[in-house]
Amino acid sequence: MILTVTLNAALDVTYFVDRLVPHSSHRVDDIHERAGGKGINVSRVLNALGRPTTVTGLAGGTTGTALRAELHEAGLRDELVPIAGDSRRTVTIVSREDGDATVFNQTGPVVQPADWTDFGTRYARLVRFADVVVLSGSLPPGLPPDAYAQLIAVAAAAGAATVLDTSGPALLAALSAGPDVVKPNAAELAAVTGCQDIAAAAAELRALGARAVVASRGPDGLHALTAQGSWRATPPEQLSGNPTGAGDACVAALAAGLAAGAPWPDTLREAVALSAAAVPCPVAGDFDAETYHRLRTTVPVEEIHDAHPDR
Amino acid sequence: MILTVTLNAALDVTYFVDRLVPHSSHRVDDIHERAGGKGINVSRVLNALGRPTTVTGLAGGTTGTALRAELHEAGLRDELVPIAGDSRRTVTIVSREDGDATVFNQTGPVVQPADWTDFGTRYARLVRFADVVVLSGSLPPGLPPDAYAQLIAVAAAAGAATVLDTSGPALLAALSAGPDVVKPNAAELAAVTGCQDIAAAAAELRALGARAVVASRGPDGLHALTAQGSWRATPPEQLSGNPTGAGDACVAALAAGLAAGAPWPDTLREAVALSAAAVPCPVAGDFDAETYHRLRTTVPVEEIHDAHPDR
Q1: Inter-chain contact B101–A26, Cβ cutoff 8 Å?
Q2: ipTM strictly over 0.85?
Q3: Contacts of B292 (CB under 8 A, 6+ apart)
Q4: Which domains does chain B carry?
Q5: In chain B, fewer beta carbons within 10 Å around the N or the C end?
Q6: Taken in order B54, B59, B60, B64, is the CA torsion positive or negative?
Q7: Would you say residue A311 has pLDDT above 60?
């Protein structure tokens, strides 16, 4: 089972408008609401692939109730832990004219110490059933900066592998706990290391404790630096649409590969195919099955021979 | 007491962002939520002026619960009638850079026949205590097109005067019931009559049954056509800010003038001053007290002698 952790779960609300015109009024007659947050999106992709997955994390208030109701409707196993505050909403305005998305992300409620204790208890129980734990997204206010390091240590002690997808101080503070895979995008990697060279920056994260680094480079695919080697995987065709959710689809593939013990080139091929298949879909957590099946056998994966740190 | 009716009450959510950039992601750390809908805004203005007012209308679901909690906090008397559906939200993005607002209005839930029957019972009771009834805003889906005509007839039978602020078919269908004042803006007046000339269009609404027409012309003030005469009232200075809520402040002044039996020129002076004082405030239902007090004695009101229909 792949356990996903979403500490800042959200109700994702999408407003469809004909055209977004700043400083004007828009009538919205088409609204979609669903549970969101990066870990939940990852579980949604895994569920669609038929991989057993469980959602945990923190959710509360009337917004928490609404997002959990939607998780149940979607058939996802919900082990979210209730918190005192009201979960955040994200509002995405999708313009029908060009399919483009404008996103407003609320910060999220302040997590109380008692909430974090409750979560620790539930997480320690769930992690015993997990092959892989996915830790995704920003830390809500109120959590200790090393929250992900604590969760990685508990997973490691229980024998579960970990995939971490976060950025900034939350990423840096987690590295010493030795996550099995970290997946920053190129901008996050440069921001956290201060280094624009993707290979050098990935090597730095490994030096700080990450066992493997898979950096996403948007339409240019993935750059992976692992104990087994380094690879570059590139989508064989460019897809137009909305890149929101491509990162979560990538993480789903990395977690599935880790759970199956697949060789890195196979996992990277899946990850690029699944990310690319998320682009034509306007909502994170969805992917286009036909695109995925077309690409998963054709993504070129190239080994980088001058960048093996460990052999 | 002035009774305001909001059949499509909302939770108005305002997101403050540094700058609205279409097709990008925005972090929102400053969120304000309050009860909204045009009638509720009118009551808020009346309450700030110290005029007794009661809020009624329709609200339901978790959004209805949230908006009613905020009404109580604001000290407004709440006689909203619960409905089966979940009330709508409106989302307004205010850019800190220029104070400009971009608005997303949800349509609102479908009102069930039983909800409308419940409302009729409550309204018939409340209207007996009202000097003036304010009917504001669009009709939610599910209501009969002549909903406002029905409510105006009940008010008239109970001896209460009515102020109607709506547009399109809801306005047209209400005229035959003889509302005491209708307050379209210039664009709504032109749309409903097909006539660009404001005086001729106002005369047409009177011919269809409205006892008085007060048309708002944005920064150019008000044009009033009544049984007692016709007037033009113009703000003596232009204010910059957000015109959202200026119409509701205007309606509050019209209702207060009607309740007090004030002469039309005094009421129009108040209405222009209060509308203008709403412009510097980013949120509907608020007005700047200092601006209001400065303008209420200085708004020029000019009688139009060639446009008296009845004398």
Answers
A1: no
A2: no
A3: B273, B274, B276, B277
A4: 2-21+28-307 (3.40.1190.20)
A5: C
A6: negative
A7: no
Residues with Cβ within 8 Å of residue A151, at least 6 apart in sequence:
A5, A123, A133, A135, A162
Cβ neighbours for B154, distance < 8 A, ≥ 6 positions apart? B120, B123, B124, B127
What is the rounded distance in angstroms from the CA atom of residue A205 to the CA atom of residue A187?
A: 14
Alpha-carbon distance A299 to A112, whole Å? 45
A248: annotated active-site residue: yes
For A127, list phi and psi in degrees, rounded to 5: -65, -20
Say which of B27, B62, B101 has its CB closest to residue A62. Answer: B62
Q: Cite the beta strand spans of A157-307 per DSSP E.
A: 161-165, 181-182, 213-216, 222-226, 229-233, 301-303
- Name the residue of chain B whose CA is nearest to A101's CA: B23
- The answer on pLDDT for A309 being more than 70 is no
pLDDT digits (tens, 9 = 90+) for B36-59: 999 999 999 999 999 999 999 999
Q: Which pair of tokens denotes residue B200?
A: 């001729």
State the Cα–Cα distance between residues B211 and B132, nearest whole angstrom: 14
Nearest C-alpha of chain B: how many angstroms from A66?
9
Torsion of CA A255, A259, A260, A261, to 10 degrees: 100
Of all residues in chain B, the one with the smallest CA distance to A100 is B23
Residues of chain B contacting residue A29, judged by C-beta atoms under 8 Å apart: 106-107
Contact list in B for residue A66 (CB cut-off 8 A) is 62
- Dist. CA B10–CA B66, nearest whole Å: 10
Asked if B214 and B271 touch (Cβ cutoff 8 Å), the reply is: yes
Name every chain A residue with its beta carbon within 8 A of the beta carbon of B23. Answer: 100-102
Q: Does the structure show a pLDDT above 60 at B308?
A: no
Closest alpha carbon to B223 in B271, B259, B179, B180: B271
Distance of alpha carbon B272 from alpha carbon B263, whole angstroms: 15
B181-182 vs B161-165, strand pairing mode: parallel
Q: Choose the catalytic residue: B146, B248, B306, B310.
A: B248
